[in-house]
Design a protein that fits this description.
Length: 210
């Protein structure tokens, strides 16, 4: 259970200077950064476990290999941010903006972020096994080689997305839109493709769906 008042007071007592551009390798676990503007900051390898970053601005920030486990990123702006190899297990990402973000090889297993906006996102090689991406908007994204086994992608907008070599075994793709998507060599074993839209998509065997 969260106690924002106690967390805020504890954080304020630390008197951390957030105006500096390099905040890498810091210990900011349970930090109170709600609504803060950290756009363009270097937060690589920083520990932000359970930090409150609701509606915070991270546009263009560097969060490579950051620990964001159980962090609160509801409605946060992560557009254009570098989150490659970041650990986001258990983070709250509802309604976060991840347009153009780099999440390559990030760990988002069992993550719950339905209806996330993530146009042009790079999730290549990311672990999204068991994740809930219901209604997500990920058009023109790169999920090449990503693990989406048992993920929920029902109703998702996956137009022109690159899913080549991705593991979609057991995934729920009901009512998803994959117009023009690249599914070459993707693993679709056990996936639910009920009412999925595949016009002009490249299938795992290299054929183009009509």
């Amino acid at each position: 259970m969260w106690d924002d008042q106690k967390t805020r007071k504890r954080w304020e007592r630390r008197k951390v200077d957030l105006t500096v551009s390099d905040l890498s390798d810091q210990k900011f676990a349970e930090a109170y950064l709600r609504g803060k503007n950290l756009s363009g900051k270097n937060l690589s390898r920083t520990d932000l476990h359970r930090a409150n970053m609701i509606r915070a601005e991270f546009e263009g920030a560097n969060l490579e290999s950051a620990n964001l486990t159980e962090a609160r990123l509801v409605e946060a702006n992560l557009s254009g941010a570098n989150l490659s190899r970041a650990d986001l297990r258990g983070a709250e990402l509802n309604d976060a903006n991840m347009t153009g973000a780099n999440l390559s090889h990030a760990n988002l297993s069992n993550q719950n972020f339905p209806h996330v906006s993530a146009y042009f996102v790079d999730l290549s090689g990311a672990n999204l096994s068991g994740a809930n991406l219901e209604g997500a908007i990920m058009a023109d994204g790169n999920l090449r080689g990503a693990d989406l086994s048992d993920a929920n992608l029902s109703g998702a907008n996956l137009c022109r997305i690159n899913l080549s070599g991705a593991n979609l075994s057991g995934a729920n793709l009901t009512n998803a839109t994959l117009w023009g998507a690249n599914l070459f060599c993707a693993n679709l074993s056990g996936a639910d493709l009920t009412d999925v839209r595949l016009k002009n998509a490249m299938m795992p065997d290299g054929t183009i769906h009509d």
